[in-house]
Amino acid sequence: MPNKPTTTIRIDLEVKKRASEVFDEIGISMSAAINTFLKAVVREGNMPFDITLKRPKSQPKSGNATLNHAFIVKKDEFYTQYEDIAREMVRHREQLKGKTILCNCDDPFESAFFQFFALHFDKLGLARLISTCYAESSIAGSEYPLEQANQAYKAVVTEVPAEPIARPDGSLDLEALFAMPGNSLAHLAGDGDFRSGECEALLKEADIVATNPPFSLFREYIGQLERHKKDFIILGNMNAATYKEVFPLFSNNNVWYGESIRSGDRKFYVPDNYPLNAANCGVDERGRRFIRVKGVRWFTNLDTDKRHEPLSLTRLYTPTEYPRYENYDAIEVGRTQNIPADYNGIMGVPITFLDKYSPDQFEIIMLANGNARTNVSPKILREAGYCPHPEDRGGVGIIDGRRVYARLLIRRKTS
User: Which of 139, 149, 314, 375 falls 20 to 30 Å from 81 in CA-CA distance?
Assistant: First the structure.
């Protein structure tokens, strides 16, 4: 059932058509525009403002630069569902207690991360919640616009009202929240980019970072967290585990996957101007556009008991079922569930092994992919028995003269 009542409005067809053209160019839906207008009426107690579209004069631009920027911004504006956040965060309740949480967001008041931590502030026993807005986002300032709405800001919460702040439509009562004396909203000097000096200063104040960083900047984001030695729970594509900057964190047991997402795809909300060209995308009952993305995982360095549960091994090694690589002293194991219980040598397993990985049961030696020769130290290559093959394209495993998929080279711990 819809969470909001349906209202029928009679609009002149020509007016509706011309207004829709304007809204399409601005990048919002007719429904969003009407809701914006009504909220402003309530806030101002009067007809609030005129909505105009200033059409800039055309100026010569680099076509590639413009397209690339639009592609990156559009592809990075994925908004995580509240339910996915809740399922992961509840597994870390004890670790969150008494901590300062930082959420870098496109807009805190459109973010399910901010909403979750604000609603569960007392239940989780948080010390502080800090969230930043990115001014370049298409949704910045749309839910609770401040003066100078195009400017980035930070929201700081140190206490929440005793009365519920969740509204019937799913939004937060932000007026009540920021009426509390310990809470504040303040403009940032810059655009709210997580790499800026003022956002990095806020990072230093935080104990744990929880957010969905831009997928295209995942390397930089997790690298910054590592430099500052921060605990974190962040969302990313599982293939990010193979990045040369990220894989050593996995092999050294400094980062691992979270517990709540181990397979399938995930639903993400996207801006109203996001093209819905792919399969399994659409508009939900509340009028929000969404897409579904495969291979999404939580990346974290917060430990849990489940991470140490051993994988049940039922298969036994046979040379015919587990062929050897021609360029590594290791055997091929095509599926994680087929890891032999009685083999103590090096094995090549799929990347999805990380979903089942227990550091008490296995050690990760290296990633055998096309960058192995350049990314892996000579010492580790010698340990894995690597011998260059003319067809291995930089280090991919070879069986019967053919390359296999990228593999994690692992070894079972015997002690």
Answer: 149
